[in-house]
Fold:
Amino acid sequence: MPRDKREQMKKVADIRLESQIGEEERFWDLMRRMARENKTALLSFAVIVLMTLAAVFAPLLTPYTEKQMDLMNRLAAPSAKHLLGTDEGGRDVLTRLLFGTRVSLLIGVVPALLSLLLGAVLGVLAGYKGGLTDAVIMRIADVTLAFPSMLLAMVIMYSLGGGIMNVFLTLTLVNWANVARVVRAHTLRLKNSEFAEAARAIGVPGRKIMQRHILPNCLPSLLVLFTLNIPASILTESSLSFLGLGIQPPNASWGLMINTGRQYLYNAPWLCFVPGAAIMLIVLAFNFLGNGLLDVLDPRQKKQ
Amino acid sequence: MEQTVLEVKNLTVSFHTEKGVILPVNGVTLTVPAGKIVGVVGESGCGKSMTARAIMGLVKYPGKVTGGKIFLCGKEITQLPEKERRRLRGSEISMIFQEPMTSLNPVVKVGKQVDEAVRLHTPCTRAEAKQKTLNMFREVEIPEPEARYNCYPHQLSGGLRQRVMIAMAMICRPRLLIADEPTTALDVTVEAQILKLLEKLRDAGTSVLLISHNLGVIARTCDEVSVMYAGRIVEHGETAALFEKPLHPYTRGLLRSVASLRAGGETLQTIPGVVPNLLHLPKGCSFSLRCEKCGADCEEKVPELRQIAPGHFARCFLAEKEGKE
Amino acid sequence: MNEYLLEARNLSRVFPAAGKKTVQAVSGVSLGIREGETLGLVGESGCGKSTLGRLMIRLLRPTAGDVLFRGKNITDMGEKEFYPFRREMQLVFQDPYASLDPRMTVRDLIAEPIETWRLCENRQAVTGRVRELLHAVGVPEEFLYRYPHQFSGGQRQRIGIARAIAAEPSFIVCDEPVSALDVSVQNQILNLLKELKTSRKLTYLFISHDLSVVRYLSDRVCVMFLGKVCEIGSTEEVYNHPRHPYTRFLLDAVPLPDPSLKGKEIRLLRGDPPSPANPPSGCRFRTRCPYAQERCAAEEPALRETDGVQTACHFTEELKGL
Structure:
């Protein structure tokens, strides 16, 4: 009987455990819920996936190459041969758009990732260490934020010169401060949480507490920041290229395409509209996805 | 004067969750006679607070009252439209909660908040409302009522905040006060004062439905007690009879746990296992998995709440046998 | 020479509060805990018992006073010098929901102290040790890779206890370990704590506002009021013959699960506890004490020993008969 009883007890405990799963939703459950409840976010995700695929398989999707000129066919209107027409050098706009996706996505993702890393590390340090470390890091962040970001980007680009690497660097330097601020705020809260105190009581060193307990618990906000930083970077790059400071011709980037297309706005409007629409589409997609993530990951909004 | 202030018959509240429908309140029948304090005792998740919310008409989505009837002074209120229900709340039935801080507006002076409650239900001038509020503050034994009138909630101690909540609940002389764990957040010395106040209110004519997890609180203040487990009432009786001769094994386990803690000794009495999840209740008696006397019947059929001794009910197949022991 | 495992000498801690005010959470507390005993610490919320617990194991630094562990002053030590002592002193938290990192599995949670102190050689050995600990606290091994939110409150507290004993400490502060639990589960945890104490030769500082829980576990009890010790003595003496008026009222106020006591007049304490930001002069209890006299406002009572019990009241002898 006692053994029987124990078996039974275990069954009860088991049932309790099984049935509690889902009480506090795991990450993938949340994603699934977002896909189900927020169709805009799901659609945005689909758009992003499609664009990524288009960027990766660009050479396979078009018979032309990015730099291939056809001076006989300058500024041709959209036709069966050139679906979105050609530009002032007779290059296929669709092809350049597809190759431009590569640059734009890269410009979107890489600096967002870099600024996320930089901002998270500095933010968690500032929040956890406090005192002088905090003061120094956050004052630098304040200065960065106080500058209009476009102006800051232009200054950096002017002094470093064009090229994709410099664009990465510039955008990282422009965006890290926001991330640092958010992460610092989370750290201040998490540092005083009971589980951080529990870790200190066990003797876990500060570095490990930041690594293992604080940063992982910032992840939901970081993910959201990431998706919101991507469109910001794409827009900044477009503006920089538009001003002639970003990607240099004959490479294709959406901002650059608008810049050159601008001169032919009246006789070949597709040169501006097509990349403009692409920018709008991807920026909206990332924004909607970011908002969708914010909705499901932020418990304060969940209650409504 | 009617004999019964509140009568709840077969009240059921269901919750639709992703994993299925659960019944946090499953066929609860309760009666609060005039001039009595009736206790509902049980552990967290047993449905005692949900019962209170259902009586108040405050069950939140995705929960829903799906069965049963509630009578207030003989009048059915279950089917009343929301507007009528709202009129009843505060004037005929009031409720106080565990944490008074969260039910008070932090940026409005507490006196003003009570005034608001007065003016909501009775037409009167500001001066009259203030006078009523101060009188009520005196009645619930708030020291220096004029000074406290102008305090913000965070300036008051937990005990005083709870008194303000009680003043607000009592301002229209409701027939019934539902107190949901009113002393759980308070210190023992303050708890004793608040319990005393509840008894005073009862003697002044308001019946109280006191919800608590603390058997000591129940024993000290209640005239009758219902014990809840997994959404059902498993035992009901007069406080003295129930504590002296508990008929349901769950009640017995709870009382033994508390008693053995007081008695000391090497190992404490416990109830083995944990409270079952409402999604996976056993087929028969919901306590069967933790019950040492569980028989074949218990695993198959859900026992009814039956009268075992005069005024003493239990939901157990073996209650008669236990009662004799 | 030193009979105490852990000793507090004149320990004080001041917290800054809003508007340049300060809060004396703990002021001038001296007490000792002998090896192998359980010292219960009771008092109402805000009396400084949790702060005192954290001061004792250097999770908080005192504003004044010293803590001695095995006769060595650990207050003034540098971080490096103190580090080996950290393992000896652990903490069990009140809220098993908040004190476990929601993103770690049970295995990683319990492995954390083992890895921090390098008590095992490799990953496998660590996991083996975690299994042993789970067994010791009564959590089924199958749940090794579950997350804390999948457990009930009682089991979470068991995991918290496993974490505390994983580094093989000699002293554990239990900060209200059962207050968040249901009655039926509370006793299971108390049984576990008692069993672990014997099997692992632990010394406890057991903090609780629940007098019956403290009575069950403790050898000696310390009653605190507003940052000060009112009474300290063997559990039996303090519970059966409370000397300090506050202890008497505290014991009287506890509602007993015995309806036959209903209607019996209980002596009620006046008012609410005073704010620690602005404590009364002299004896801090005097504003609520029915026996307070002029002397109580003028002069702060010192802890005096009578029949093995230390009491901080001017009128211990006079009030004996009441």
